[in-house]
């Protein structure tokens, strides 16, 4: 029986990261139903209940070391763990987990990570040391590979795959239909979903999204629905945007599971999103999307499916967003078809992460 410890940003009620874990567990279980997981989490009780796995506290060094000693592999990922743009401290934490695994001689795999940006001489030097001690690295985009090359990380096998969430199973739309109906959202009128978030206290992009939302509602008779990826923070961000609007949007004010968010997204006619994994949800569920960038990871994903962000949060204008929205609205079927073709290749690449991990375990056991 294979035992894997998983390190990532789990247990903090960020639906994107929880989707990443759910997708990883789905793919591994499809390949090996007997596999055992221990997930390092900020909320072990929630992680155990939500995903049906053993979970340990992210600050319990004793528990982490004990789990690593009994594991065949440490998986670090997916997501953008190894960067110091959104947080300087988190980079050191995740490198600390890598150090503990190396210390007890448990093989390390960086799993579909989005690498960087990493700023500063010391963080880059430490990254080089830790990553060169990994047994296998997969990254979710070509830009991450470039980051590794620039930091002179080359000792382990490195492969470009895709974000783990792209391998998640699509879901039925009836769950989302029930949630939308419960919130008095009509299925006879177009529905445009917006996944918003707070970012560095900026105000302009909130006013821009408010203007775009009003314009879409007026031009297409669409219902504007704000959907929270991270609860309750995203609800607060949506409330700020709604305060600038002339019309009244619908704000979903609840915490949803990965399956529920996928199903809600599947019922949309179009999606506008700042959140990366909401864009991926749209791809999985065949919904045309408009992305707004706050981080290179958003641009990287959109580039991988042949698209570009409508704008970035720092300089966003209502006109640039509406122009891209209008173009896609007129060609929704074509957008679905093109995205479906590109995403089918990425789904296969995303699934290969687990195949490579199990291959590494098998190789280690035969040495």
Automatic annotation (TrEMBL):
Molecular function (Gene Ontology), one example: transferase activity
UniProt keyword annotation of Iron present: no
Domain called Polysaccharide pyruvyl transferase: residue spans: 14-296
Gene3D superfamilies (alphabetical): Glycogen Phosphorylase B
Pfam families according to UniProt: PS_pyruv_trans (PF04230)
InterPro entries xrefs: Polysacch_pyruvyl_Trfase, Polysacch_pyruvyl_Trfase_CsaB
Keywords: Membrane, Transferase, Transmembrane, Transmembrane helix
Transmembrane segments: 91-119
NCBIfam families: S_layer_CsaB
PANTHER family per record: COLANIC ACID BIOSYNTHESIS PROTEIN WCAK
The name this protein goes by in its record: Polysaccharide pyruvyl transferase CsaB
């Amino acid at each position: 029986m294979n035992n894997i410890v998983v390190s990532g940003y789990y247990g903090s009620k960020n639906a994107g990261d929880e989707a990443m874990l759910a997708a990883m567990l789905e793919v591994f279980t499809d390949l090996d139903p007997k596999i055992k997981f221990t997930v390092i989490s900020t909320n072990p009780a929630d992680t155990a209940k939500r995903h049906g796995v053993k979970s340990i506290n992210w600050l319990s060094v004793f528990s982490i070391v004990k789990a690593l000693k009994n594991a065949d592999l440490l998986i670090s990922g997916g997501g953008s763990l190894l960067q110091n743009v959104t947080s300087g401290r988190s980079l050191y934490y995740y490198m600390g987990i890598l150090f503990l695994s190396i210390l007890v001689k448990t093989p390390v795999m960086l799993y579909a990570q989005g690498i960087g940006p990493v700023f500063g001489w010391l963080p880059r030097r430490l990254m080089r040391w830790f990553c060169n001690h990994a047994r296998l690295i997969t990254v979710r985009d070509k830009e991450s590979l470039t980051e590794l090359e620039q930091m002179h990380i080359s000792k382990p096998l490195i492969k470009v795959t895709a974000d783990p969430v792209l391998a998640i199973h699509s879901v039925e739309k009836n769950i989302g239909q029930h949630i939308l109906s419960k919130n008095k959202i009509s299925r006879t009128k177009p529905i445009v979903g917006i996944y918003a978030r707070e970012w560095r206290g900026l105000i302009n992009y909130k006013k821009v999204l408010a203007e775009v939302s009003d314009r879409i509602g007026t031009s297409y008779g669409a219902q504007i629905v704000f959907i929270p990826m991270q609860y309750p923070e995203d609800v607060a961000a949506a409330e700020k945007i709604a305060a600038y609007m002339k019309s009244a949007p619908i704000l979903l004010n609840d915490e949803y599971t990965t399956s529920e968010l996928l199903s809600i997204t599947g019922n949309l006619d179009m999606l506008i999103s700042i959140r990366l994994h909401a864009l991926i949800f749209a791809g999985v569920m065949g919904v045309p999307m408009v992305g707004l960038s706050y981080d290179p990871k958003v641009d990287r994903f959109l580039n991988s499916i042949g698209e570009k962000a409508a704008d970035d949060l720092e300089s966003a204008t209502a006109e640039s967003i509406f122009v891209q929205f209008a173009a896609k609205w007129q060609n929704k079927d074509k957008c679905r078809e093109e995205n479906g073709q590109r995403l089918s290749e990425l789904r296969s690449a995303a699934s290969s992460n687990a195949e490579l991990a199990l291959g590494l375990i098998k190789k280690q056991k035969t040495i």
